[in-house]
């Protein structure tokens, strides 16, 4: 398992994970449009809740750029379903319970905990934006992510 993971210019590591809505999600399903991959430490934690609600509240900004948001954490699908229902989230949350996808993206800290991270892939699934937080107390705002999406669509 690499702690470095991937960066800007790298091909996004492929994945297929179970998620909300009773289905599996593959990164490849979104080829042809931008994808915002959000790794977050945990359902119903204070900062994660604020982060995902803010992205949900800004969904029209992402949709206007045809971008798909995928949230990924290590909790199981049942936890994700409850979290989505509680906060009326309109994008899927995926369960990386064995941390294999988090490892491939380099979002695991030295003790194996998920670091709050965001990757934006272009339509060819090449990473064009990467941010890994050292401390999970803040998150990337919608405006920053939308700006990054606008830059890759030019």
Descriptive notes:
The chain is of the alpha/beta class and 154 residues long. The chain has helices at residues 46-57, 59-64, 77-87, 100-105, 142-153; strands spanning 16-19, 23-26, 35-39, 68-73, 93-95, 117-121, 127-132. The chain has a single domain (29-153), classed as Glutaredoxin (3-Layer(aba) Sandwich), CATH 3.40.30. A five-stranded mixed sheet has the order 5-4-3-6-7. Strands 1-2 form a two-stranded antiparallel sheet. The longest helix is centred in the middle third of the chain and has 12 residues, at 46-57.
Provide a compact summary of the structure.
The chain has five helices and seven strands; from the N terminus they run E-E-E-H-H-E-H-E-H-E-E-H. The strands form two sheets. It has a five-stranded mixed β-sheet with strand order 5-4-3-6-7. Helices cover 31% and strands 21% of the residues.
Number of strands: 7
Q: How would you classify the quaternary structure? A: single chain
Strand content: 15-25%
Number of helices: 5
Indicate the structural class: alpha/beta
CATH class: Alpha Beta
| Fraction of residues in helix | 25-40%
Shape: globular
The sequence of SSEs as H and E is: EEEHHEHEHEEH
| Major beta sheet summary | 5 strands, mixed
Low-pLDDT stretches are none
Q: Main sheet: which strands, in order across?
A: 5-4-3-6-7
CATH topology, anyone?
Answer: Glutaredoxin
Give me the CATH architecture, please. Answer: 3-Layer(aba) Sandwich
N-C termini distance: 35 Å
Rg of Cα set: 14 Å
